[in-house]
Design a protein that fits this description.
By secondary structure, the protein is an alpha/beta fold. It folds into two domains: 162 residues, Rossmann fold (3-Layer(aba) Sandwich), CATH 3.40.50.300; 64 residues, no CATH class. The protein contains seven helices and nine strands; from the N terminus they run E-E-E-H-E-E-H-H-H-E-H-E-H-E-E-H. The strands form two sheets. Strands 5-6-7-3-8-9 form a six-stranded mixed sheet, sandwiched between helices. A three-stranded antiparallel sheet has the order 2-1-4, covered by helices on one side. The longest helix is centred in the last third of the chain and has 18 residues. It is globular, with a radius of gyration of 18 Å. The N and C termini lie far apart (37 Å).
């Protein structure tokens, strides 16, 4: 889908966040950006979204053009829902901003809420939803425009372990069904190993790609308990031991 060519990012205050990031991301991949806090994972995601520009290097897209409105969905660490709007209205927001009428969007809103397990909560306000449910609304909102690329910045970090596991399973299932390209930021080795089809391990700042793991693990509920999963976690952990400063 796109290629990063020696991408670097230096902020105006002189902070070097990323250095010489080179990678190819194929259509339909679920790629986890895994690394310690402050290594530039979120900065890289913002570059992919077009919210920041590289200081050096470039990002080239297979289509030959920068993605337009609706081509990229973005899920933040916080659900960032409009507190005065119900779940359906929050999901509708990207389409409303593009001039789509509520009547025209209604079937798509209903479909997205059903896909994230919230069909019965369309008219529920955010303050009446649990943290996990609010994040589901945020994911539905990001997908309502049928984006080519879904960017997710540690969306489950603030959730309890039970909710986090459930949403991880739901997200992986949604990816398998939809075939979307997903780039997912996390600092959890276990989360990356469970979710992704490929893991890019980043070194401490300035962030570089220290390792690239594929994850040919069994799918479904058995994935987390498989010997292959345990071996992958051990391999990634050993990589971190090598790249982290003493």
């Amino acid at each position: 889908m796109f290629t990063l060519h020696a991408v670097g990012k230096t902020f105006p205050d002189g902070l070097r966040a990323l250095d010489a990031i080179t990678a190819e991301i194929g259509a339909g991949e679920f790629v986890a950006l895994l690394g310690p806090s402050g290594c530039g994972k979120s900065t890289l995601l913002r570059l992919l979204a077009g919210l920041e520009r590289p200081s050096d290097g470039s990002i080239s897209w297979e289509s030959g053009r920068q993605p337009g409105p609706g081509d990229i969905g973005y899920v933040f660490q916080d659900a960032t829902l409009l507190p005065w709007a119900d779940a359906a209205s929050n999901v509708f927001l990207p389409l409303r901003l593009r001039g789509v009428s509520r009547a025209e969007a209604a079937p798509r809103i209903a479909t997205m809420l059903e896909q994230v397990g919230l069909a019965d909560f369309a008219h529920t306000m955010p303050q009446a939803l649990s943290g996990g449910m609010r994040m589901r609304v945020s994911i539905a909102r990001a997908l309502i425009s049928d984006p080519l690329l879904l960017l997710m910045d540690e969306p489950f970090a603030a959730l309890d372990e039970f909710t986090r596991h459930r949403l991880q399973e739901d997200l992986r299932g949604l990816w398998r069904r939809s075939g979307k390209t997903i780039v997912f930021v996390t600092h959890s080795i276990y989360e990356a190993a469970f979710l992704a089809s490929r893991i890019l391990v980043m070194s401490p700042r300035p962030g570089r790609i220290a390792a690239d793991f594929s994850t040919p693990l069994p799918d479904g509920a058995a994935r987390r308990g498989s010997p292959e999963y345990a071996a992958l976690v051990a391999d990634i952990t050993e990589t971190f031991r090598r790249v982290m400063p003493a």
